[in-house]
């Protein structure tokens, strides 16, 4: 989990605090944290290297599908609000 936390905003900052609070041995933490950091750097460096020559095409695709992403986000927000309202009305 320590290595995966590198890829999740928020968990990355509290990684050490949570590991310490749960009593994780420091050597295991350092090893997992170093592996997670290496993987994080590798993923973002590779993404930059491979996408660098194709930025115009990536931007065109993002603009092409931006309204679908906005609609999906609005639908997800409305579904969440509906779910919360349904749960609230079911409480005695």
Q: For the residues shown, what is the average pLDDT?
A: 91
How many β-strand runs? Answer: 0
Helices, by number, come to 4
What is the rounded Rg? 20 Å
User: What order do the SSEs take from the amino end to the carboxyl end, as H and E?
Assistant: HHHH
Shape descriptor: flat
The portion of residues forming beta strands comes to under 5%
Terminal-residue CA separation: 38 Å
Q: Bin the helical content.
A: over 70%
Poorly predicted runs: none
The secondary-structure class comes to mainly alpha
- Summarize the biggest pleated sheet: none
Please give a handful of descriptors for the protein shown.
mainly alpha, 84% helix, 92 residues
Written description of the protein model:
- The chain is built from 4 helices and no strands.
- It has helices spanning about 1-5, 10-20, 25-50, 55-90.
- The mean pLDDT is about 90.
- The two termini are about 40 Å apart.
- It has about 90 residues and is mainly alpha-helical.
What's a concise summary of this model?
With 92 residues, this protein is mainly alpha-helical.
SSE blueprint:
Blueprint: H1 2-5, H2 11-21, H3 26-51, H4 55-90
């Amino acid at each position: 989990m320590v290595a995966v936390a590198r890829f999740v905003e928020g968990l990355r900052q509290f990684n050490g605090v949570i590991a310490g609070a749960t009593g994780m041995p420091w050597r295991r933490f350092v090893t997992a944290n170093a592996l997670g950091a290496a993987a994080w750097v590798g993923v973002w460096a590779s993404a930059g290297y491979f996408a660098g020559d194709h930025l115009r095409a990536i931007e065109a695709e993002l603009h092409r599908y931006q309204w679908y992403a906005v609609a999906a986000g609005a639908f997800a927000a409305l579904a969440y609000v509906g779910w919360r309202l349904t749960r609230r009305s079911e409480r005695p």
